[in-house]
Amino acid sequence: MSDSAAAAIDVARDLFPLISEAAAQPGPVAGEVIDRMDRAGLFGVMVPRDCGGLELPMLDSLDVFAEVSRADGSAGWVLMAGAATIAFFGAWAGDETADRLFADGVPLAAGQFAPNGVAVPVDGSYRLTGEYQFGSGINHADWVGAGVMTQPDDGSDAAYLLAIMPKAEAELKGNWDVLGLEATASWDYGIHDVLVPESATFDFFAPVRRRGGPTYDLGVMVLTALGHAGFAIGVTRRALDELAALAPSKTRMGAGTSLAESEPFQLALARLESRAASAAAWTRETFAEAERGALAGEIDPAACTRARQATVHVTQEGADIVREAYLLAGTTALRDGPLQRCFIDLHAGSQHFFAGDFATLDMAMDVLAAASAPVG
What we know:
With 376 residues, the chain is of the alpha+beta class. The protein is 51% helix and 16% strand. It has helices at residues 3-14, 16-23, 31-39, 58-71, 73-92, 95-101, 219-246, 263-295, 301-328, 331-334, 338-349, 358-372; strands at residues 109-122, 125-135, 143-150, 160-166, 170-174, 187-197, 201-203. β1 and β2 form a beta hairpin. The longest helix has 33 residues, at 263-295.
């Protein structure tokens, strides 16, 4: 592990008391939390060094996201979403836009990449219009990203692009009344007739690496999945820590011993710990495998699919583990506190596209194809 990676992970760990305490307060992730993470360079963990970022190896970035998410799921979510967004444009945007974006260091960015808008070509630029949701951390951001489909005027096929623009160009709409991850302030926003240069866009499916190392050749899907995996690992870890901490002082009605002295509880806790550790270990294994291929110049699509499926698995497995922890804790978890937040935040995260069935189906096709391949 490099000195910069160790320092970033240490900072994320040291911020635990501040982030955890702030999470108990209503409203979006506190400005002080965002500022401390920003000043520590955490939003730059995935950003190319050419742009002033840390460009950490994938597992080190995963650990940073997990540490912040352990303190508070919403803070971890805002961090991983913002870090990925700005890293993408650091690696794949044109030089003109990259120079502007990173002129004063790594900026804060947010946005939804679903292709909910259209882009009309206009003399080397695009005119964008669209309606978006889930702008996690957009209240703190300087820049806003958006997914669009082009409308070519020459009869060519439409392209799926990601674009970025100053936040002042977006109409923020709020509308984030939700059960979990409420503090992410993932507001709706609109982009109305906004002109962006071509250099402020890149092709979603075939981005061209202009800065940074070969890891960026893994593309949007794998690099985005990394943040979601770190979030799930961190929130699951916090839920199990909270459960173990309350066990010595918690006695369920009618029980003769505390939870910590109950053999059924001990068995349940050890099994939950085993499941969490297994899911996290497979997640780390798959991302390490995918990155090794990229660094060797031989990206393996099946390895990328496994990394995406590991993200699905660690998220859905984590949601089930946290549900079991919630039930074991009894009415303690019913009340506002870290365990309740873990329960609702991870269940909210389990609804995301990156925790859905698409990667699972892709992996199934890989497994079936391998099984039908000739032997030898």
